[in-house]
Design a protein that fits this description.
It is built from four helices and six strands, in the order αββββαββαα. It has 123 residues and is α+β, with helices and mostly antiparallel strands. The protein has one domain: Aspartate Aminotransferase, domain 1, CATH 3.90.1150.30. The chain has a six-stranded antiparallel sheet with strand order 1-2-3-4-6-5, with helices on one face. β1 and β2 form a beta hairpin. The N and C termini lie far apart (32 Å). The mean pLDDT is 94.
C-alpha cells in the first residue's frame, strides 16, 4: 500500500529519468544516465523492522538526512545504502507530500550534479 500514488510518475518526469527492475534485489530503480537516484522496494520478513513496508530510497544531503529522520518517524536511514547519504521513506507513512517531492528533487539533483558537465548539459 502506498499513500503516494503519484510517486512513480513524479520520478519518471525528471529529465532523462528511466526505470528498471533489479531482479536480484527486487527493486524498482530510477536512474538518470545509468546512476540511481531513487529506488522502491518492499523488504522481506528477514529485514526487521522494515519487513513488509514498501519504501522509497533517496539520496540526501547528510545534514538534512539526520534532520528528516529526527522530525519524521517514517524517514529512516537508507535501506541497503550508505546511511549517511541515503534515506528511506515508508510509503505507508505520513511524510507530507510536498516534503517527499522535495526529497525526490534533492536526490535527483545530487545525482545529476555528479554527472560529467557534457552529460548534465544534455538534460
Amino acid at each position: 500500500m502506498t499513500n503516494y500514488p503519484w510517486l512513480d510518475g513524479y520520478l519518471l518526469s525528471k529529465p532523462g529519468a528511466e526505470r528498471d527492475f533489479k531482479v536480484e534485489w527486487q527493486w524498482e530503480r530510477y536512474l538518470v544516465r545509468g546512476k540511481m537516484f531513487a529506488a522502491v522496494c518492499t523488504p522481506g520478513p528477514e529485514h526487521k523492522p522494515h519487513a513488509g513496508r514498501t519504501m522509497v530510497i533517496l539520496k540526501c544531503d547528510p545534514r538534512l538526512a539526520e534532520a528528516f529522520r529526527a522530525e519524521y518517524p517514517d524517514v529512516v536511514p537508507g535501506f541497503y545504502s550508505d546511511k549517511r547519504n541515503w534515506n528511506s521513506v515508508y510509503l505507508d507513512g505520513t511524510v507530507p507530500e510536498t516534503l517527499l517531492q522535495d526529497m525526490c528533487d534533492m536526490s535527483y539533483s545530487l545525482v545529476v550534479a555528479k554527472l560529467p558537465k557534457k552529460v548534465r548539459e544534455t538534460l
